[in-house]
Amino acid sequence: MSKRTIQSYFSNSSASTPHTNESTYEPKKSRVEFSHSDLIGDPGKRKPIDDYQPEIRDQIKRAYALNGPTQPRDIIFPRKWMSGEFRSFQKTWFDEFDWLEYSEYKGAAYCLYCYLFFNSSMPKKFGSSVFAHQGYVNWKKAKDTFNKHNVCKTHVEARQKCEDFMNQRTNVGRKLVQVDKVEIVKATYEKGYKNCQMLSPYVQKDLQHVESCTACRFVNDEGKVIERFLRLQHVESCTAIVLKEALVRYDGASNMRVVVSVSTSSADIADFFNYVPLIVNTVGASCMRKDVLLAKHHDVLLEKIENGEIMTGRGLNQESGLARPGDTRWGSHLKTLLRILVMWEAIIDVLEIVKKDSVKPACTGGALGLIGKMESFDFVFIMHLMIELLGMTDILSRALQRKDQDIVEAMHLITDVKDSLQDIRENGWEPLLKKVKTFCEKNEIEVPDMDEEINIRGTSRRRKQKIFLVAIDAILSELNIRFSEISSENSFSNFNVDKLMRLAEIYAEDFDIGELALLPNQLKSFVNRARRTQEFLGCSELGKVAEIMVKTTMNTSYQLVYRLIELTLILPVATASVERIFSAMSLIKTDLRSKMGDEWFNDLMICYNEKEIFRKIENEKIKKRFEEMKNRRMLMPKNLMVNIIDKI
């Protein structure tokens, strides 16, 4: 018998069998996320609730319940031949049955509650299964069937389940939590709300997932013009062309291209507007320079009062600073130039101080160059010219910023501005030149010889042709181009039928060929009746005409005329809303909230600018809406919710 070694007790590694009990790795199943794209408005195209994944089924139900039943009221319901006559769905049924839905795709009626909480084990009486899945189409007996379905047990239970499901304060799960809650948890719930998850960024972002409506300028059912905030849109520049591409048709703010046109029409004027911001920025670069500017201006005012150059009185000679011009604001350019004119001596003194005290050669040279530019005759001449021109257009600018502005008054103002510009073009050269010479002599600025016969850069003839006339012609041309389309629509003031027809032809998409043929006779009939109606006497505004037509129900008799008036009222005339929107941007998106996303920022802008509407919403409704959007770990205390909303 041979001896066994230690190695004989161990099996050879090559002969060893593999371990067959080793568990294989199974990848973790990905979680299904809820998306609003899963929601389908047409009930005929929806898939059954049970076909959705269990993880998102409750979210789907909650979203459909929040949206409410699909009830299209502005469509033409198809007619079907039933029992010897044509029958169709009636939109008045929506008012009688709040659960009723209609599918344009299948032309059938559905029940929202039965779709969400249909119990297949219940008896299928009175079309419960039909209203939940197939759709009801028998319009002959529709009213009777709807009434029976409204009180059947299956529908009543489905409705009760939906109401309990949406009311988190009364559902079973919430009641069990309230019963089993111990005193420590209760104290934490009532006193420790600062640690509530609703204050986390996750839930704060959840607040922005609401249905927001983008509105614009429209005429309501009472004939009144309403303007609502239109969401912000990033643009590359402030020109009308870019804004038109971004917003289809921008309102009166595109009129600001008049200023840009004037700035680029003449090289001298463009150079002038390049120096104006440099002067404002240099003088107001620091608080110390601003204080020196105000002190110098105060000394100048006292000296002028002592010499009898200016008058004193309440509201006169107020302390003011320089204002920066904006690309999209007519009034800002005029305001800046007027401040420079009034504070001329103080600005020169501050620039002299900067030139002497600055340790940087660049600052010294910049201040020296600005002083030389300001003390030139061309700078003074262009400054007075632009004050004259912008002063005329400022009347139109302020009128266009009124929210109650109508097209008739706007066209009168445009005509007045054009007449004033034409008058100064023909008769304003000599008075302007005299005013500029007086200012230059007073401030010791060299005045060139205007009678110089040699055709050089500084002659009077060159300034009149290359600066004075070019600036006026640029404004006139831009006004004619900008208002060319609506210039022929100023016809309701005198009820010119031919011009009103021209307006209808421009907006051909709103009037078909047949309506254009009927419109002239309807216009003549309306004009004759309006002249005989007492309510229209003394009415000169289109907005009032629309309101009177609604009150006297003439909008139904003269539908084409009323549609034409609506088109005229919604023409983009007023810029007040746009101005207020841009002013509100700095209040919402501060330095601390500079990384705010566009969607969240737009939602906040809507709430801020339309706060008159949101203030009418009760706090309890806001709280209920927030709670119903998804299941919450805990409900928001009533007092806390009221305090938060009141602060907003």
TrEMBL record:
Residues 85-178 form the TTF-type domain. It comes from the Eukaryota. Residues 1-24 have a biased composition (Polar residues). Residues 1-51 are annotated as: Disordered. SMART domains: ZnF_TTF. This is TTF-type domain-containing protein. InterPro entries: AtLOH3-like, RNaseH-like_sf, Znf_TTF. Residues 25-36 have a biased composition (Basic and acidic residues). SUPFAM superfamilies: Ribonuclease H-like (SSF53098).
